[in-house]
Write a structure and sequence with these properties.
With 331 residues, the chain is α+β, with helices and mostly antiparallel strands. It folds into two domains: 8-158, no CATH class; 192-324, Nucleoside Triphosphate Pyrophosphohydrolase (Alpha-Beta Complex). Helices cover 22% and strands 29% of the residues. The protein has helices at residues 29-37, 66-72, 129-135, 140-158, 231-243, 292-300, 315-324; strands at 42-47, 50-56, 59-61, 75-83, 88-94, 100-101, 116-117, 124-126, 170-172, 177-179, 186-187, 192-201, 204-209, 221-224, 247-258, 263-272, 286-291. The strands form four sheets. Strands 1, 2, 3, 4, 5 and 8 form a six-stranded mixed sheet that branches. Strands 12, 13, 14, 15, 16 and 17 form a six-stranded mixed sheet that branches. Helix 6 crosses helix 7. It is globular and about 60 Å long. The two termini are 32 Å apart.
């Protein structure tokens, strides 16, 4: 635990995940088997990228016993998440054949809207993780663990074959590696770095919106870090590409695990040295400068045009809020 004031990253969604991951013992199959079978071990379950929740009288529950997991249907992969003071936690990936889709997805929606069910189990809900965190229906540490589980199991679902020789791979090291017995290659879970940044100029900051955003919501610009780039170079390139705004100095502020499917959001503040915006319409629906006073009304939900700040689940919310309170680097 942190002895002093938490760093900004600790306050972002999906970040609270204080499990001991047993990294030094994950290559011991007997150790892993004993943990998985221990009575105090609890499980998170993922089905088609969505957490499974038990519907109970006291509300939705994300944790299952081993027997409850077995009753759900075939588990394709299982991974070790870690241990806290009282329990060990694993995560299981339900086989797709266990799940039925009841309606088509709205691909433009911020939250997945298709209905996924396990036939014969009306007590089980498969729910989009973004919806869960926005509803605050689970404790923060469980949200972090679910993000951990979702990222890891999504990688396993998409990497069943060796990229070197094409042979089928096997889960190893408690889920933190896949091994190819055919050619000897080892494959490790992937995390994609994304820069998300607030360009600032005096008392103004630059925000944009994509068509899929909730009505009225504006957010920080963002984009994937490319091979051979520094974080600072990626910040400058993405801002220039999406808005034509030129940037000089760049400062890191905070980071956030983003399990959609598996990224690390690197939050930065950038010093804008130009002001004329040219919007890249393939990326953004709109992009504009907002004053610090306007941002205050966005958080208060009193903006005259109905504009809103990003949801607290996103690092953009915390980046913008910190800038509003002058808690970020002042260029």
């Amino acid at each position: 635990m942190l002895k002093h004031r938490p760093e900004p990253s600790a306050l972002t969604g999906y970040a609270l995940n204080p499990l001991d991951r047993f990294s030094a013992k994950r290559d011991d199959p007997a150790f892993l088997a004993a943990l998985a079978q221990a009575p105090e071990t609890l499980w998170y379950v993922i089905g088609k990228d969505r957490p499974a929740l038990k519907i109970t009288e006291s509300g939705p529950q994300a944790l299952f016993t081993g027997e409850e997991v077995a009753a759900l249907g075939r588990i394709r992969e299982s991974v070790l998440l870690g241990r806290d003071d009282t329990h060990t936690y694993f995560a299981g990936l339900l086989d797709d054949g266990v799940i039925v889709t009841r309606e088509a997805a709205d691909e433009g929606a911020f939250v997945e809207t298709n209905q996924l069910v396990i036939p014969g189990r009306p007590d089980i809900l498969l729910k989009d993780l973004r919806a869960i965190i926005m509803e605050s229906s689970l404790p923060a540490h469980q949200i972090g663990a679910l993000g951990h589980a979702k990222s890891l199991l999504s990688w396993h679902a998409r990497h069943r074959f060796c990229s070197m020789c094409g042979a089928r791979t096997e889960l190893a090291s408690g889920g933190y590696r896949r091994d190819c017995k055919a050619c000897g290659a080892q494959h490790f879970p992937r995390t994609d770095p994304v820069v998300i940044m607030l360009a600032v100029r005096g008392e103004d900051c630059l925000l944009g919106r994509q068509p899929r955003f909730n009505k009225g919501m504006y957010s920080a610009l963002a984009g994937f870090l490319e091979p051979g780039e520094t974080i600072e170079s990626a910040v400058r390139r993405e801002i220039l590409e999406e808005s034509a705004i030129k940037v000089d100095r760049v400062a890191y502020h905070a980071s956030q695990p983003w399990p959609f499917p598996s990224s690390i959001m690197i939050g930065c503040i950038a010093e804008a040295v130009s002001s004329q915006i040219e919007i890249d319409r393939t990326e953004l629906e709109d992009c504009r400068w907002f004053s610090r006073t306007e941002v205050e009304t966005m958080f208060a939900r009193t903006h005259s045009a109905g504009f809103l700040a990003p949801n607290p689940a996103a690092i953009a919310h915390h980046l913008l809020y910190a800038w509003m309170r002058r808690e970020t680097p002042q260029f």
